[in-house]
From TrEMBL:
CDD domains assigned: USP-like (cd00293)
Name used for this protein in its record: Nucleotide-binding universal stress UspA family protein
Region (Disordered): 1-21
Lineage: Bacteria, Pseudomonadati, Pseudomonadota, Alphaproteobacteria, Rhodospirillales
The UspA domain, residue ranges: 24-137
Pfam family for this entry, one: Usp
SUPFAM superfamilies associated with the record: Adenine nucleotide alpha hydrolases-like
Length: 172
């Protein structure tokens, strides 16, 4: 029997156990800044061996249409959401080197984000980008400081509005 203690790496800590790869959730909406969030998530996914989850939420119309017309409008909105995710997925795949998770949900945006995070335990972070201009950072980011942020079980990463693609790519 030896009196030696097992060697430890520099810093004196034992190696951390392997953890599952990170999954970065990006809400795909019609804003310009969404592309910055998607780029950041893709770059970080590649750097960490993780992947990107893309969520498009089809919100209910402000008013209800009669039967078939309303159903047809919702069906068309869902089909358009699926086409948009497929178009964006090619760029994410190229940048992250992983096929992204694609999710289309119907309902209110904040509710659907919370549900996806609850339903998909592999989601590690929500990535959002701040809006440019004088109108403030955007409703999703503003909500992070309130009850929405308090109910979110994963960290939120906010990408500043002024970052260039080159600056985002440095995080990879």
């Amino acid at each position: 029997m030896s009196d030696e203690t097992p060697s430890r790496p520099a810093g004196g800590r034992a190696p951390a156990p392997m953890s599952p790869p990170l999954t970065f959730l990006v809400v795909v909406d019609d804003t310009e800044e969404m592309h910055q969030a998607l780029r950041f998530a893709s770059v970080r996914a590649r750097a960490t061996g993780g992947r990107v989850a893309m969520l498009r939420v089809v919100e209910p119309p402000d008013f209800q249409h009669f039967g078939f017309v309303g159903e047809q409008m919702q069906r068309e909105a869902r089909e358009e959401a699926e086409r948009l995710l497929q178009r964006l997925a090619a760029g994410v795949n190229k940048r992250s080197r992983q096929t992204p998770m694609l999710e289309v949900r119907e309902g209110l945006l904040v509710d659907q984000i919370l549900e996806v995070v609850a339903d998909e335990p592999e989601i590690s972070a929500l990535v959002v980008a701040a809006r440019k201009g004088k109108k403030g950072p955007g409703p999703l980011i503003a909500g992070l400081a309130g009850s929405f942020g308090a109910r979110l079980r994963v960290p939120a990463i906010v990408i500043p509005a002024g970052l260039t693609d080159e600056e985002i790519d440095r995080f990879g």
